[in-house]
Design a protein that fits this description.
7-stranded mixed β-sheet, about 25% helix, about 30% strand, 8 helices, 13 strands, disordered N terminus, alpha/beta, globular
Amino acid sequence: MRSWIMWLALLALPAWAGEDEVVLYPGYGDVRGAAVEGRVIERHESGEARVDDGSWRNLRRNARLLKNDERGQRPVTVTVASREWETQSDDEGYFRVELDAAAPLAEGWHEVLARSGDASGRGELLVVPSANRSGLVSDIDDTILVSEVNDKRRLLANSLLKNPAQRQAVAGTAGLYAQRGALNPQPAAAPLFYLSASPRQLQRPVGEFLQRNRFPAGVLLMKRVTDDDSSDPLLDQFAYKTRRIEEIFRRLPDVRFVLVGDDGERDPEIYDRVRRQHPGQVEAIWIRRVHPDPRRERYEGQRDLAEVLRQAAIR
């Protein structure tokens, strides 16, 4: 493991850097309030991902994405729908703005602009329409993106040696999620969430994978990894995912969700606990079966994703 870390650190040395970059993470909420988060870092050029890129090029690009030089204590101006909020990045370069209900934003998607000095970044904010009450929260690795988490060597190869143009989507899941979103009066602003335990530094390639494979627009939530106590749990996926799902439930109390995951790690246990604690907000649980042990525990009320996909295709 130490040799991997050493090589990644060497590969991450940029060919050129110096300027600041503002990165915005997808935000969400409703007319009662929403939040926007981002980070100010040193700009690293990573280049466009291509189908014919080799493993070495992909490894170098991914290593650069994973290494961020944060810009702490930078003033930041966030603009949404012609309204501005002033804030400042923390010691890890992160910033957050709460948009309260005093002057609610219109329902639907909004472009977000953040500026810090000469640097700027653009992102998106979803204000979920009050009539949209059919939601979905989906894991990514081995649920909609073939990652092979049960084989750590293959997992590393898929994650580091491939790019978004080369990654394989689980057949049928993009269409299934579009069907779920279409149950809402305003499908384009459906409460769809893609929940990943990967670090936010990989937001760009994960977002590109979703777009390339025509997954419906949604909010991509990824792990905040820092050197201080503000970091999300690095290894405790149970705590991380539970907390993120409960945050979604708190912000969108009128929405009922389908939770989608796989049994390669702990999604079945996490979703079972969430369902028991929040029965009014969990409509169904779909699990993709990838675990090699047939004795892997199955939880009552959790349907096989393969079965759901077959039935959706019949319709």
